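Shapes recur. Our protein:

. . .
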Amino acid sequence: ILNRPLTLSEKIVYGHLDDPVGQDIARGRTYLRLRPDRVAMQDATAQMAMLQFISSGLPQVAVPSTIHCDHLIEAQIGGAKDLARAKDINAEVYNFLASAGAKYGVGFWKPGSGIIHQIILENYAYPGVLLIGTDSHTPNGGGLGSICIGVGGADAVDVMAGIPWELKCPNVIGVKLTGKLSGWTSPKDVILKVAGILTVKGGTGAIVEYHGPGVDSISCTGMATICNMGAEIGATTSVFPYNHRMKTYLEKTGRGDIAALADDYADLLVPDVGCEYDSMVEINLDELKPHINGPFTPDLAHPMADIGATAVKNGWPLEVKVGLIGSCTNSSYEDMGRSASVAKQALDKGLKCKAAFTITPGSEQIRATIERDGYSKILGDVGGMVLANACGPCIGQWDRRDVKKGEKNTIVTSYNRNFTARNDANPATHAFVASPEIVTALAIAGTLDFNPEVDYLTAANGEKFKLKPPSADELPKLDFDPGQDTYQHPPAEGGSKLRVDVSPTSTRLQLLEPFDKWAGGDLEDLQILIKVKGKCTTDHISAAGPWLKFRGHLDNISNNMLIGAVNIENDGVNKIKNQLTGDYGGVPDVARHYKANGLSWVVVGDDNYGEGSSREHAALEPRHLGGRCIIVKSFARIHETNLKKQGMLPLTFQNPADYDKIRPDDKISIKGLATFAPGKPLSTVVKHSDGTKDEFQLNHTFNETQIEWFQAGSALNRMKELQ
């Protein structure tokens, strides 16, 4: 059909078209209707996804699907005790997910099994698969030649219901790697460098495709690290071409038959010669130096050689309070081995970490194997605490007690995100992201301005010494130790006789009521709830951490709506003026008051609104509390889709300067909904309190199917209409 060489991502994505012959394919323009092979859901988003699937009335999922319990385990005193506590506190939610999985044919990975993305890499990802996951770091699977895309729960419901899944045809950004990794430079430094080049929105609407001779110097799990953090540049996903490193990993994880099949079709699992990319980045791995990114945003990139001076210039605290390694981004066997290699050198010189130090294994298999092979002991002896096989501090599940809230401090992590207050709910924490081996070195040195490539440490006997570059095996010499069996298969006989109960008095779970349909006219005199200033991620819109426990209860979780967003009127957070009473209150409280008084509302925002996590609660909550429309300069991909799925209107200023015309007490009308059509802008009338008004155009990216979602009140409502 296309009659041209294809990129690898095009081969895989277009290879999953619902109707290849009838599909219009134009990068960056048309919507593709796709048939993914598999769905994966982490427990915090699976609750809402399964509640929506229950609402659909369907008896079984149409594609292989799994639930992974990794988000609800708080890091507090150590792995085993934290896990036991989580099982007790979250018993109601785990029972719901296990029983819903059994009834509807969904596999269930129990708490303690590990982080969803590591489990997918070890079990479900393979070259050429198209997998969607209800977590923004699903692209981790690209390290195994997969197209793995993060989505909201409503998208997962479509696929589980057997409905074609829609994705705007992605552009393709090529990243050509030359040279090879060596010394202290790691796969993490590749994506830290790319993030610095492309920024947090440079990958929006695109798949990032790595290629070139440098690829072969990166391990399979290292490629996964790079793809995982592609979420931080807004990319739809990232992918590497099939090679011998992937083959070795497949064989080591018990999938030699898939490796043999991939070998037979290797020409299909790499880009065609002469394929064209929409843009290109080139990185010479021979010249790449270790990087550290932050604070407060993952695209603020610094070579390690520069960070000390930059920190002093900006007043960032140099003392490293805590070093944290692991997470879905960097918890492979190789990562743990390289970190242990650094720690062993310190121990041999009589040193321990000056900073607190935590280790998060990515899966039960990794935990058991690094324990067997001695890495856990080394990391523990140097001062580390091994946490549960779960997300933990990376997503704010951290009961941190060494600093007070508001106390300025620095932490370094091998995680992927470092938004304000993300890890520990302290907005004064300066979080920096680096490779696990750099984090380990900084935890030992206790200071941000330590560059292990050139700086010396002082041994217990007073002698000066330099750390040697880390070295470790890519994969264990023996087979992986699977550890405890933590997987529950759906029953072979089906689940039609099983019950899934949700107590009407539960504070954790709540069955969903359908949202109201579009009334048929324009949206008149919407009150501005809040005009948001600057960066507004899904963490700002629907915070995680302690709020994760309400992810299955829409009304309770809605009490965190936009409490982290900065109000342009007063530079405050969670403090807005109630235009009906004249009093100031929290954002959710004012929204509830407006809804109770029949007043619909709108949010106005800045660039890349909704970047970060895939959590659809950031779209469900505004809809639940009476919101109709979100008007911003630009959206992050997943959040824009999530808003459409819930019957909201995500609109963008045709002229971004019109953002400045809007005042916090304005009333806004959205005109043109009777003739709402793809590619046709809507108009708005903005009434100011002084009697004047402004009129301008608002763009949208709705296609015909998505307009039907809006008219029906939500995508789920439309699905029921079509049954």
